[in-house]
Structures are given as C-alpha cells and as structure tokens.
C-alpha cells in the first residue's frame, strides 16, 4: 500500500498514515491537493487528509477538495489522533523577542491565545505543514514554529514549550481516500454532501427527517458556501451505518428526492484506535 500524505517528514498527517497502515510505503506531498492527485495519477494507492479538528472545526483545504467536481474517490477509513502542539525552533532564542512564528494555518489557529502569551511580538505566518514550518524556522533568524516534539527531534530543533493548544483534548480526524470505499464492518459511518432548495422553507428539515424517521443517527453536520451564490450552502453530514444497510440505503434514496445535489463520499469503519503492531517498525 502506497499512502500519500501532507509532507515533509514529521507532520501529523504522516503520523495518521502510519496509524492507518504501519506497513505502508509513505508518499509525502506538498499539499492536500497534491496528495489526492497522487492517487489520481497512480503514484499512490490512497491519500490521508486531515478533515476536522476539535478546536477549529473543518479543515477547509480538504473539504474544498472533496467538493470539487473532479473528486471521484471514496472515503474508506478514518483516523483520529491526539494533537500536541509545541513551540519549537533553533536553540538560544528568547521567545518573547521572536518576530515570526511559522506553522500550518490550522495549527496557528488552534494555538492563537497561547502564542500571544508565549511570543507576544511574533507574527503568525502560514506554512504548508507543521514540519515545513520547522524547516523555515531553522533557516531564518529569530523565528519559531508550531509543530510537535517528535518533529522537533527529527529536525534537530529545540522545544521551548509543549502542549500549547488553546483548549485541552485537542484531536484531529483524518480520512483515507481511494477509488473505492470499504465493505460493511458492523460499526460504520457514511459521509455525504448535499445542497437543498434554499428558497423552499423546510427543505433541510425534510432531509434530516429522512434519517430520523429511520432511526439513523447523525454524528456530524456542517456547511460550506457553494461559491456560486451568497446564502447558498453545501451541507456535509456523517451518519452512523453503511450505505449498503437497508435503512440507510432507503434514507439516501429519500434524500436524493429532497435535494438539488447529493454526493455520497463513502462508507467506512468507525475509528476504534490503531491496530496493534506485532513487530518493531523502522
């Protein structure tokens, strides 16, 4: 299995790829779009992408990729990882004197308040990944990065403060996408997206009723602008069950009748933690 992921080495997405399949050949990519493109062009068999964080919510870059007309893949798995951000960089700095802090935009947002305390003069600057942020911090004077302690050790950086997220229990959910989804496991989730008749009262209620009347639980719902008209939205929903289950199949057929557009991203086993590793991994 070749797994594409946001690189370089040391990113949280790399850790999620390893948690999904410790034996996989990892294919680091410069962006989420590049990771998905690697599956499209055959460089990788699947791609691992961050989709949701417990502090900042949906990961825009991944959601936008899922909603592209060109997206033809399926979600086949999910991985949930605890996120422990650290303030890292070259040795010998006083964080209060630092002028720039690099990191992925999600990481910067998850640590906004703590960074204002730790690096009061630091200007947040977006990097392609938390690992790339370390590389930038090590190359430029008087800069730090938000990354993690393991990546800091990998790149020879100093940890100035650990666990700096603004809220405890920081977790990120990752998805694995490939040309096909997964067979039913008995404990599954299904992810969909749809648009409603925005000028028709109760159109969203009718969609939700299709699930509630069949006893199907929604585990996640959020909206994104359609980018076509102000006030129109795409709803992204996760529900319990596999799309081949009779009740969910009937619900999706009903939803298709109530929506303007419906996309089923796939069904996959609910994350239960990493499988035990039987032998040491390099």
Q: Based on the structure given, which CATH architecture of the largest domain is correct?
A: 3-Layer(aba) Sandwich
| CATH fold annotation of the largest domain | D-Maltodextrin-Binding Protein, domain 2
Question: Helical segment tally?
Answer: 9
N to C succession of SSEs: EHEHEEHEEEHHEHEHEEEHEEHE
Can you tell me the CATH superfamily of the largest domain?
Periplasmic binding protein-like II
> How many strands appear in the DSSP assignment?
15
Secondary-structure-derived class: alpha/beta
- Give the distance, in angstroms, between the N- and C-terminal Cα atoms: 16 Å
User: How does the major sheet shape up?
Assistant: 6 strands, mixed
- Rg calculated over all Cα atoms: 20 Å
Strand content: 25-35%
Low-pLDDT stretches are 276-282
Whole-number total of structural domains: 3
Range of helix content: 25-40%
* Shape field: globular
Roughly what is the average pLDDT, rounded to an integer? 92
What is the name of the CATH class of the largest domain?
A: Alpha Beta
Q: Would you kindly provide a written description of the structure presented here, covering whatever features stand out?
A:
With 282 residues, the chain is of the alpha/beta class. It folds into 3 domains: 2-83 and 170-178, 3-Layer(aba) Sandwich (D-Maltodextrin-Binding Protein, domain 2), CATH 3.40.190.10; 86-162, D-Maltodextrin-Binding Protein, domain 2; 188-269, Alpha-Beta Plaits, CATH 3.30.70. Helix content is 28%, strand content 33%. It has helices spanning 12-20, 32-40, 60-66, 105-110, 112-118, 130-139, 149-155, 203-212, 246-258; strands at residues 2-6, 25-29, 46-53, 57-58, 74-82, 86-89, 100-103, 123-126, 143-147, 158-162, 171-178, 188-195, 218-225, 233-240, 261-269. Strands 1, 2, 3, 4, 5 and 11 form a 6-stranded mixed β-sheet that branches. It has a 5-stranded mixed β-sheet with strand order 8-7-9-6-10. Mean pLDDT is 92; it is low at 276-282.
